[in-house]
């Protein structure tokens, strides 16, 4: 027969090592706050295990309340870490019901019905673990195999706590006077150690995946404007064929070198950010904006006709012309030139569409700037009128 005290001590040792590991990881990457939250939750559970082991030796009523409160609080913190990682912000949905369960447990335990207190606590923990598994399965955006394991371990651990509560309920043990000791408790000790160790390892894996995602996002994002960069353009569209309802608009801010020379680079940065803000306003499904470098930008449009794509690019140019940047020399207004490149029924690669848009862009500059040009069916630039600004 398994020695119950040994199981508890093994759980405490395993949890302590896991908590220390989590703290160490958080110290190296402070931005991963959910790792710190997990470490705190596991530390509370270790305190629960130690208190529970002491309670098995000296079943004092006040110690019973401490044991049950620490168990519920520990899994509440674990649940909050899952919400933190997955982007849930309404923590009250977990905190309020759990605190209510803790209050009910404290009341019945104080009245001497510690068996009911254990049942309430086990029910609360089961609900928290079920919530963790459900949240990861429903909202996680990583490898579904990892999420399946997280959900399975949470469910298995929750089931072991549910069995503990159901065993007490089935035996009608409303008053215990000591720590419960039955087959369900022993099974729970084994399952809890295994599942919490597994969840800890998976937390490290999820942290690693999140770090990879953040690193990839940083390498594909322009730090000044927040738009995607040329690397992202090649990543997203480099292997795609541009069909008849796809287009690229290339933009180049007019006289931008003069803006930097006359007003200074900080003002030039403001102008770039203003244009990025304008182009972001036209973002929707199927429209992606990029800063290619310097004062060059690109807008990739899907599910649009050539006419609508040209109209959107023209409206962006007009909207940018209304932007005013305050400077030490007075208000500054800038303009932008644009060129259009289109896909075809047979499909065209990214480089070919970009080359067409680039040629049209230079035609717009030669035609006097402050306009968006698209080549006609014969491949000749169709120099429209200058963009009207307010």
Question: What is the helix content?
Answer: 55-70%
Read across the widest sheet, the strand sequence of neighbours is: 1-3-4-2-7-8-9
Number of helices: 12
Shape: elongated
Low-confidence blocks of residues: 377-386
Element string (H = helix, E = strand): HHHHHHHEHEHHEEHEEEHEE
Radius of gyration: 31 Å
- The secondary structure category is alpha+beta
Region (Disordered): 371-390
Pfam families: GGDEF
Enzyme class: transferase
GO molecular function: diguanylate cyclase activity
Descriptive notes:
The protein has 390 residues and is an alpha+beta fold. 64% of the residues lie in helices and 12% in strands. The chain has a seven-stranded mixed beta sheet with strand order 1-3-4-2-7-8-9. Helix 1 (4-28) runs parallel beside helix 7 (183-219). The radius of gyration is 31 Å and the shape is elongated.
């Amino acid at each position: 027969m398994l020695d119950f005290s040994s199981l508890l001590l093994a759980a405490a040792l395993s949890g302590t090592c896991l908590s220390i590991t989590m703290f160490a990881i958080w110290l190296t990457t402070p931005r991963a706050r959910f790792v710190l939250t997990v470490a705190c939750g596991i530390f509370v559970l270790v305190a629960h295990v130690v208190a529970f082991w002491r309670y098995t030796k000296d079943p004092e009523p006040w110690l019973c309340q401490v044991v049950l409160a620490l168990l519920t609080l520990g899994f509440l913190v674990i649940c909050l870490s899952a919400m933190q990682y997955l982007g849930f912000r309404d923590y009250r949905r977990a905190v309020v019901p759990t605190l209510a369960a803790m209050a009910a447990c404290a009341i019945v335990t104080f009245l001497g019905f510690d068996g009911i207190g254990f049942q309430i606590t086990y029910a609360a923990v089961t609900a928290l673990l079920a919530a963790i598994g459900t949240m990861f399965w429903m909202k996680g955006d990583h490898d579904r195999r990892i999420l399946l394991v997280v959900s399975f371990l949470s469910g298995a651990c929750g089931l072991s706590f549910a069995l503990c509560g159901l065993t007490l309920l089935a035996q009608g043990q409303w008053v215990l006077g000591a720590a419960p000791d039955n087959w369900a408790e022993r099974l729970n000790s084994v399952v809890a150690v295994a599942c919490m160790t597994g969840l800890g390892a998976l937390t490290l894996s999820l942290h690693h995946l999140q770090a990879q995602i953040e690193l990839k996002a940083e390498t594909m994002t322009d730090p000044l404007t927040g738009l995607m960069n040329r690397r992202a353009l090649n990543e997203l569209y480099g292997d795609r064929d541009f069909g008849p309802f796809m287009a690229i608009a290339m933009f180049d801010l007019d006289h931008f070198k003069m803006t930097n020379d006359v007003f200074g680079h900080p003002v030039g940065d403001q102008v770039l950010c203003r244009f990025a803000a304008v182009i972001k306003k036209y973002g929707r499904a199927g429209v992606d904006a990029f800063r290619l470098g310097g004062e060059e930008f690109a807008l990739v449009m899907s599910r649009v006709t050539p006419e609508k794509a040209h109209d959107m690019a023209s409206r962006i140019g007009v909207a940018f012309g209304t932007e005013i940047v305050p400077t030490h020399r007075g208000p500054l207004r800038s303009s932008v030139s644009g060129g259009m490149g289109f896909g075809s029924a047979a499909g065209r690669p990214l480089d070919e569409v970009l080359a067409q848009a680039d040629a049209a862009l230079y035609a717009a500059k030669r035609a006097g700037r402050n306009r968006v040009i698209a080549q006609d069916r014969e491949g000749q630039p169709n120099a429209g009128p200058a963009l009207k600004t307010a």
